[in-house]
Amino acid sequence: MTKKPTTMKTMQSVSPRSEPVQSRSIKRTQQILEVTSNLLETVGLNDLNTAIIAKEVGISVGSLYHYFPNKHAILYAMGKSWLDSIEEVLNDIEEWPVESLSLEDFIDQVVDINLRTYRQQKAVLRLVQAMFSVPELRELDERHDDMVISQMAKVFKRLGINKHIRERERIARHYLEVTHSSYLVIVNQNEQRATRTLQDLKIMLQSLLAHHLKSPE
């Protein structure tokens, strides 16, 4: 019996139709992203589609396609914008006088500045889940991890962790996994629970980094 060839799902394009240059187009693009953020929170990824987005924006689906070819392209633009904000945070940290900060002050500042970025992104948990689960967005998830690990490995050296680059990258990956998951929990907790979880996170980071500061190279 002859087997039928397996058909692979074609990846959708995530490139916008064109870069908006006119003020009206820029505003409309931003409106589409904001509406999609709200819908991602309320209806979820699976039920999100261009028809719902267009209706909420107040335009036709055809008009929406002038800006983005599909919902994944909109989500990609959202994810890229969030990654840009993460990169800004990492660039800010790079300018800090890390060498003169106590470990406690460093942890307080690095957690607070990152958490602020997570809180500013609407539907950040669902967006991150989409970046991980949707093949068209997976590149963003990988870029996020690589960017944080690379930058924090450099920062850890300035902090006094004088280990081989691969070991510092391993520590940075552990740091990433702990902080990233904690931030996603904290932004969805009420104020009291968020405060306690934030304290726990800082204690864990204190223990992790203090251990490697004391251990031999």
Automatic annotation (TrEMBL):
Residues 12-25 have a biased composition (Polar residues). The keyword Transcription regulation applies. Residues 1-11 have a biased composition (Low complexity). Keywords: DNA-binding, Transcription, Transcription regulation. Residues 49-68 bind DNA. GO terms for molecular function: DNA-binding transcription factor activity; transcription cis-regulatory region binding. Residues 1-25 are annotated as: Disordered. Residues 26-86 form the HTH tetR-type domain. It holds the Pfam family TetR_C_15. The keyword Transcription applies. This is TetR family transcriptional regulator. It comes from Marinomonas communis.
